[in-house]
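quick q for whoever's on today - can somebody do inverse folding on this one?? i tried earlier but teh output was garbage lol. tokens:
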């Protein structure tokens, strides 16, 4: 810069015309164009001269003789006189405001540098027309702006922080040397300004705060940045994910399984391990093909220095069932009868299976258990016929084909008659010289051995029947499948002394059982007995009777004139009962009301038939109608009086004639000799146990008299059952008592026993109870008497009347 000497400036000013006006003295001021000068940029020093001036010089202290810049007014033009030869001012160097050859505002353009900061400047005006021809301004201190440049710094000075999530990051302060002062901005890792402050405050770190943070210091001159790296470490936590995203896969066996990649959000990066039941697998998990063995739960474990996390992936493989075990809860196949045995079937399948238990012999369904992997079937009360194979049947939705396996159960039971035995066929009618075949079938397990014995009657000791002796052959067989033990006894050329009881004893480890067969000569059926006719309903009579033995079926015969001229068979056949019940009944319909009917029963078998000797009758009720009750009552009373009179005469006569005493005399004892040489007919031997009534009760005059009353008033509701016994050739209802082969009813009662009659010499046997005489009232029950020579056989069938009697 050209520096002018002050004397030269005055010389120049003398040549400039001076106006005559004189003004007061005012202060001169020097200012800058801005608060701060920008290094290298134009900065204007402006000297304000209120009193006007001819020239102004700009000085930088401490230099006060040579100005840094000078401007002179010439006319209305400003000249730069800080050069060798004055030149008009140009805008980027100088300028002034003139008026009348004088200037009031003078501007000098300078290019300050950073080192000019703080320099002191003043301006001096010159006006030769004023008393004070020169006047200086106050000092102006030049401020040169300065950007942060390299002065930016962080405190603490660390540029990298490595922390674990949740740790606290210390406050970081950003500083810089700036003129004017800088503003500071921290920028997040996503380049978003999040705080206008020199201090970075993060506190407890989150994983999202991981990254590089930048501090920017900025002023009008420039800006600078400084960065710090915040590294936030964290474990996988619950961030584990799969690709494909499903955490469970359901496929059928042998289908392809896509590889599964396990990943997680971790810092530092995680390592990954798959495991299942202690076996480790690499990541990604590659199973290739689904099998029932690789089905299950797989765990992915993600691990780094901070921590670890796990997530489960399930492979469900659907496959048909397989029976893995079929066992007993305890022991083996054997179980004693009436004890329990449990069977357990265990299955491997998915989904779970329906397990069904069958008894294989007849495929009976025993138990259904849906959606299970094991099932237990228990025989709570094992029976002999429960022996056999038990089948576990398994199926599920994957396959329509059932899987089965059998397990045996062996129920140990003592021999007993096989359920298939027809007890009604345990009595054989056989002719002389015919061949006898007796099939004795037992239910038993294990296989029994057999012993055959023979008795001519139940009153005699049994003798062994050996195989191959006395025309008797024994053949034994055992069928394990149905626990059937058969002992077949055959005898050819039947002889008379071979009729009797054939006993078969079967014995095994569990006990013994016996079957007794009765072999008798061929004979027709026994006479039906204990007939009763009941007229209790209009136009219907119920006829009941007790089987006389050897019968196969029955028919009812009826008549209205005591079989003198009419008789008719009711067209219904009554078969023999299979349950062994000896009492039968048949309703005879469509009978004429008010008519007395008489009934008999015909018994049939293969060898012929027999008709009951007795006939019973009653008056069939009429269909009730609304008559005159008073007339009916009077008629009934008269009839009752007449019948009672008749009963009084006839009944008392019969009683005295039969019992040889008046009815009011009690305690009469009959001598034992009254029973000597009495031969009872077959139809007269009536067991009280057959129908619960004694022969005395059957022929009691009281019970005979009552039906006759009812027969006269049969249209009334009190009509009841009648056991009026009438001979087919009798002329009167009550004369049947005289037509019987044994008129002494009491003697008949005393000579009738329950079951087969046995007579022994007193030296060969004893009876219990030991009493030889019993005194009873008619209708009382005698105690059972048992022979001590031989106990009765368990299943012996009573003799049908063919007995060997010995006195």
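ok took a stab at it. sequence:
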């Amino acid at each position: 810069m050209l520096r002018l000497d002050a004397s030269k400036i005055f010389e120049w000013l003398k040549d400039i015309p001076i106006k005559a006006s004189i003004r007061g003295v005012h202060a001169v001021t020097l200012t800058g164009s801005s608060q701060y000068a920008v290094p290298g940029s134009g900065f204007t020093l402006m000297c304000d001269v209120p009193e006007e001036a001819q020239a102004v010089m700009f000085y930088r202290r401490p230099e006060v003789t040579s100005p840094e810049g000078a401007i002179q007014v010439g006319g209305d033009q400003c000249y730069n006189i800080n050069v060798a030869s004055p030149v008009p001012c140009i805008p980027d160097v100088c300028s002034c405001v003139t008026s009348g050859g004088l200037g009031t505002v003078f501007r000098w353009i300078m290019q300050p540098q950073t080192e000019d900061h703080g320099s002191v400047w003043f301006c001096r005006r010159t006006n030769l027309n004023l008393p004070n021809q020169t006047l200086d301004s106050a000092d102006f201190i030049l401020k040169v702006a300065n950007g942060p440049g390299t002065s930016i710094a962080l405190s603490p000075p660390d540029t990298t922080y490595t922390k674990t999530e949740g740790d606290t990051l210390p406050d970081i302060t950003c500083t810089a040397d700036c003129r004017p002062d800088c503003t500071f901005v921290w920028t997040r890792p996503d380049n978003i300004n999040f705080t206008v402050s020199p201090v970075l405050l993060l506190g407890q770190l989150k994983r999202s705060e991981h990254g590089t943070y930048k501090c920017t210091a900025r002023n009008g001159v420039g800006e600078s940045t400084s960065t710090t790296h915040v590294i936030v470490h964290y474990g996988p936590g619950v961030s584990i994910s799969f690709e494909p995203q499903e955490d469970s896969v359901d496929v059928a066996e042998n289908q392809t399984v896509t590889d599964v990649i396990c990943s997680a959000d971790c810092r530092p990066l995680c390592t990954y391990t798959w495991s299942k039941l202690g076996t480790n697998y690499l990541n990604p998990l590659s199973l290739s093909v689904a099998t029932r063995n690789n089905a299950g739960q797989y765990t992915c474990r993600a691990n780094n220095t901070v921590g670890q996390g796990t997530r489960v992936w399930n492979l469900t493989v659907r496959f048909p069932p397989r029976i893995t075990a079929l066992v007993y809860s305890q022991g083996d196949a054997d179980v004693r009868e009436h004890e329990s045995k449990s069977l357990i079937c265990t299955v491997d399948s998915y989904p779970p299976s329906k397990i069904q238990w069958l008894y294989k012999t007849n495929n009976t369904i025993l138990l259904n258990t849906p959606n299970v992997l094991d099932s237990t079937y228990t025989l709570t009360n094992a029976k002999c016929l429960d022996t056999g194979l038990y089948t576990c049947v398994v199926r599920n939705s994957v396959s329509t084909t059932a899987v089965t396996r059998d397990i045996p159960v062996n129920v140990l039971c003592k021999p007993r008659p096989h359920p298939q035995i027809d007890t009604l066929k345990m009595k054989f009618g056989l002719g002389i010289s015919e061949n006898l075949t007796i099939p004795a079938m037992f239910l038993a397990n294990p296989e029994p051995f057999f012993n055959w014995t023979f008795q001519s009657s139940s009153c005699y000791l049994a003798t062994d029947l050996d195989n191959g002796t006395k025309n008797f052959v024994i053949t034994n067989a055992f069928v394990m499948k149905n626990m059937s033990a058969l002992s077949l006894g055959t005898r050819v050329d039947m002889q008379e002394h071979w009729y009797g009881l054939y006993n078969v004893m079967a014995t095994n480890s569990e006990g013994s059982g016996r079957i007794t067969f009765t072999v008798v000569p061929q004979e027709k059926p026994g006479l039906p007995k204990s007939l009763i006719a009941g007229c209790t309903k209009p136009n219907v009579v119920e006829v009941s009777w007790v089987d006389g033995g050897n019968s196969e079926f029955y028919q009812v015969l009826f008549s209205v004139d005591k079989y003198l001229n009419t008789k008719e068979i009711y067209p219904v056949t009554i078969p023999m009962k299979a349950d062994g019940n000896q009492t039968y009944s048949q309703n005879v319909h469509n009978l004429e009301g008010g008519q007395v009917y008489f009934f008999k029963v015909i018994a049939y078998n293969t060898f012929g038939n027999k008709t009951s000797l007795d006939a019973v009758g009653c008056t069939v009720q009429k269909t009730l109608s609304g008559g005159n009750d008073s007339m009916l009552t009077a008629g009934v009373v008269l009839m009752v009086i007449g019948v009672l009179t008749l009963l009084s005469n006839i009944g008392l006569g019969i009683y005295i004639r039969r019992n040889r005493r008046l009815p009011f005399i009690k305690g009469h004892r009959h001598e034992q000799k009254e029973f000597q040489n009495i031969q009872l007919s077959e139809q007269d031997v009536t067991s009280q146990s057959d129908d619960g009534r004694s022969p005395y009760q059957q022929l009691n005059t009281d019970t005979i008299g009552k039906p006759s009353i009812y027969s006269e008033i049969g249209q009334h509701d009190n009509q009841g059952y009648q056991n009026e016994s009438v001979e087919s050739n009798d002329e009167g209802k009550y004369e049947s008592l005289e037509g019987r082969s044994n008129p002494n009813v009491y003697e008949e009662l005393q000579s009738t026993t329950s079951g087969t009659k046995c007579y022994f010499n007193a030296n060969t046997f004893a009876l219990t109870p030991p009493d030889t005489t019993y005194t009873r009232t008619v209708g009382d029950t005698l105690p059972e008497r048992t022979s001590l020579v031989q106990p009765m056989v368990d299943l012996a069938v009573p003799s049908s009347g063919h007995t060997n009697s010995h006195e």
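fwiw The helical segments are 6-14, 629-659, 688-691, 695-699, 701-712, 745-750. also The chain has a mean pLDDT of 79. so keep that in mind when u check it
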